[in-house]
Specification:
Distance between the termini: 64 Å
Helix content: 10-25%
Order of helices and strands: EEEEEHEEEEEEHEEEEEEHEEHH
Strand content: 35-45%
CATH topology: Double-stranded beta-helix
CATH class: Alpha Beta
Structural class: alpha+beta
Strand order of the largest sheet: 5-6-3-10-13-8
Low-confidence stretches: 142-146, 202-208
CATH architecture: 4-Layer Sandwich
Number of domains: 1
């Protein structure tokens, strides 16, 4: 039996998705600041410290809980949406960049899932959004996500977002999966996360894939994204700051016109 609020949901869209959460009277959903998209009349919005998972924390407890979120690059505050009417009401939350929204049913995942720092979108009230420290020095320094990741705990439904397409894999006991460090979205608590040196002089100097793999060893579930936001941002930045080779010449202008970029 769930102790967190039980919410119904529907995910809409393909590449720019949003999740529509249906709340019964007195039910509450929590969301990251800036995730809100729209809601029906009868839902009350309230800014809260932290995730509101523990009702009797006191001010200092709430401040400590919220302060931990700063370590993951998130805001001190979250937003709670409560249905204060007599009937069912809907509130929707949108992902911040092209990709997919993933449902995490924490009750079926042993009460905990570890995910990248900026992936949490929204959840049922009672789900705790905390931090997960990487205990190994090498993993923290070279693992792509640093020493700190997010952890979602509880027995309710939570939603995370990722870039591009997302694939889910079920690892068997001892099965090892090597992944680009930026492509990890989340993994269940039974999965062992570590790093591995790529190796080889040519791979290191000219491979262009970084010096380390992330390694995920089963058993458990892992979610992998095709387009990390850091990779997307890097490409956009390079196009905005690096001049194309053919620019500035007559032939370059002709080439740009032919491929649709104009003169």
């Amino acid at each position: 039996m769930r102790t967190n609020h039980e919410i119904d949901y529907q995910i809409h869209g393909e590449e720019m998705q949003y999740v529509e959460v249906e709340l019964d009277p007195n039910e509450t959903a929590i969301a990251e600041s800036g995730a809100f998209m729209m809601m029906e009349d009868g839902i009350q919005m309230e800014t809260i410290f932290g995730d509101g998972a523990k009702a009797n924390q006191g001010f200092m407890g709430k401040l400590m809980s919220a302060g931990k979120r700063l370590l993951t690059g998130e805001s001190l505050f979250m937003t709670a949406f409560t249905n204060t009417s007599q009937g069912k009401k809907k509130v929707s939350f949108a992902s911040p960049y092209p990709g997919k929204i993933i449902l995490m049913d924490l009750l079926k995942m042993g009460g905990k899932v570890v995910c990248q720092k900026d992936s949490f979108l929204c959840a049922a009230k009672g789900v705790s959004v905390g931090i997960e420290f990487q205990r190994k020095l090498g993993t923290g320094l070279f693992g792509g996500e640093g020493f700190i990741m997010q952890k979602l705990e509880g027995d309710g439904l939570a939603f995370v977002h990722a870039g591009g397409h997302v694939t889910e894999k079920e690892l068997q006991p001892g099965q090892l999966l090597k992944v680009d460090t930026g492509c990890i979205v989340a993994f269940s608590q039974t999965v062992e996360y570590d790093i591995q040196f790529v190796g080889g002089i040519k791979n290191t100097l000219f491979g262009g894939e970084g010096l380390f793999f992330a390694t995920l060893r089963g058993p458990g579930k892992v979610w992998i994204q095709t387009l990390p936001i850091s990779r997307l941002a890097g490409r956009i930045l390079s196009y905005g700051t690096v001049r194309r080779k053919e620019e500035g010449s007559l032939l370059g202008g002709v080439g740009n016109a032919l491929d649709g970029d104009g003169w």
